[in-house]
Each structure stands twice: as structure tokens, then as C-alpha cells.
């Protein structure tokens, strides 16, 4: 396994052919996958809330303990290339979802711009827009549905 990224690897290789480093680098760090989502049982439509997992730092949209997150949040999902087709709940802007659907990375993605802050400038991140689940009554979760996840 290589410890460097191959040029434009997301255009040249299937998700299942990526190295671990390439797979991890596809993540734009938006934190949207860490927001609590509600799914309609009949339509499978997914509604995002601005309520974040207790480990998500709502100022930076970064996981506060990414390497050990599963020990703190039992239902935290580890995205893998083999399972990507199951994750219809990922936002349309998600690089994993986009690449699996045959689309290119968005123009604000750090692999395109070379700058990790470009997601913040494009306002595609949960940074500064979410609140911790620890601050919300679970019975009120529907009150926090947002439309800015697109």
C-alpha cells in the first residue's frame, strides 16, 4: 500500500481500488454524516437535523475522537467502499456518494482546490451550524430539521 495519493485517483480508480489513504482523503470533513437524520419509513426520504453526534465539534465539524469513535458511539457507521451503495442517506455533496454515482468531486472539494478550508467558504459544512445531541431533548428532534443539507 502506498503512502501517497495518486494523481486524480478518484477519476481513474473504482472506490474498491483505492488505498486506505485515498479513501480517507475523499472525506471533505463536512460533518454532515454525523448529523442526526430522520428517515420516513414509507418513502425512505431522509431529513437532516442540525443536531450532531456528541463527538462532533460543532465549531470545526471534526470528530473529537475519530480513531476511537466506535467505543463512544456504538452505532457510528464506518463507511467502506464495499458498502457505499447502501448509504443513500449521505448528502448529495458527499464525495463518497458522488464518486459511487459516477459524478466528479464538487469544485470546492479540497482535492480539487488544494485547500481544506474551501468547504467552509462554500458553506457545505456543518461547522458553526449544528448543536450537540447532548443539548437537545430527543423528543424534540423533529424541531431541528434543516434544509441546508444539499
Automatic annotation (TrEMBL):
Q: Sorted alphabetically, which InterPro entries does this protein's record hold?
A: Puta_zinc/iron-chelating_dom, UCP006173
Q: Known NCBIfam families for this protein?
A: PRK05170.1-5 (NF003501), PRK05170.2-5 (NF003507)
Q: Belongs to which family? A: Belongs to the UPF0260 family.
Name the UniProt record assigns to this protein: UPF0260 protein B1202_10965
Amino acid at each position: 500500500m502506498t503512502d501517497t495519493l495518486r494523481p486524480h485517483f478518484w477519476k481513474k480508480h473504482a472506490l474498491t481500488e483505492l488505498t486506505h489513504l485515498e479513501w480517507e482523503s475523499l472525506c471533505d470533513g463536512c460533518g454532515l454524516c454525523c448529523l442526526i437524520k430522520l428517515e420516513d419509513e414509507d418513502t425512505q426520504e431522509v431529513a437532516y437535523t442540525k443536531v450532531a453526534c456528541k463527538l462532533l465539534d460543532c465549531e470545526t465539524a471534526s470528530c473529537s475522537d475519530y480513531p476511537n469513535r466506535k467505543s463512544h458511539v456504538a452505532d457510528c457507521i464506518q463507511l467502506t467502499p464495499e458498502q457505499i451503495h447502501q448509504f443513500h442517506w449521505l448528502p448529495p455533496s458527499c464525495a463518497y456518494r458522488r464518486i459511487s454515482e459516477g459524478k466528479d468531486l464538487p469544485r470546492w472539494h479540497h482535492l480539487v482546490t488544494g485547500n481544506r478550508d474551501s468547504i467552509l467558504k462554500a458553506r457545505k459544512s456543518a461547522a458553526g451550524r449544528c448543536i450537540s445531541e447532548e443539548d437537545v431533548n430527543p423528543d424534540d428532534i423533529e424541531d431541528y430539521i434543516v434544509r441546508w443539507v444539499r
